[in-house]
Amino acid sequence: MEDSICDSLLIKIATGDTDALKELYTEMNKTVFCYALSIVKNKPLADDITQDVFVKIKLNSDKYQTDKSPTGWILTLTKHTAFDALKKQKRELPLDLYTEEIAGLSDDDLDDSLMLKGALEKLSLTERQIIMLYLVAGVPQKNIAKLLSLPATTVNWRYRTGLKKLADILEKGGDKVDRDRINNFT
Question: Which CATH class name applies to 105-186?
Answer without folding.
Answer: mainly alpha
